[in-house]
Write a structure and sequence with these properties.
This protein is mainly α. The chain is built from nine helices and no strands. Helix 3 packs antiparallel against helix 4, helix 4 packs parallel to helix 6 and helix 5 runs antiparallel to helix 6. The longest helix is centred in the first third of the chain and has 17 residues. The termini are far apart.
Length: 149
Amino acid sequence: MDSNTQNTDFNNAIKNLFNGKLMERVAAAKKLGDMRDGRATNLLIKALKSEKEGIVINRIIEALGDIKNAKATIPIAEFLKVETQKPEEEQDKTRMFLIIESLMKIGDKRALTHLGILLNSCHSDIRKLTEEAFECIDPNWKDNIKSVE
C-alpha cells in the first residue's frame, strides 16, 4: 500500500471514529489499531474520553494497545479505575480483559500501580491475566514488591 492510500485510509478512519454511525466507529477504531500508526494515539484518546457506546470504547482500548504508545497508559488505566469501583456484579469483565491486555501490550511500568488491585481479584482468569501482565511489563515485579515492603 502506497503512502497516499495509507493516508487516505487513516483520514477516513479518523473521520468515521468521530462522525460515523455505531458500527462505523467500531470498524474505524479496529482499523486504526490494525494500522499501528502512532499518529492515531492522541485522536483515539480524545475519542475514548467522549465516546458513550461500550463496544466502541472497547475497540478504542484494544486499538491503543495495538499501537503500543505509552501515552495511552493513563487514559486506559482510568477506565480500569471506573470498572473496579463498580460492584463486582456490574463490572464489565470483557472490558477488564481488554484493558489488561492493552496495558500489557503497551508495556509501560506506570500501569503496574493501576493493575495491582486486580492481583487480588475473585476471578481467577482476571488474576491470572494480571499476573501475566506484571511478568510481561516487569519480570522482576515480585522482587521489587518485596524490596518495597
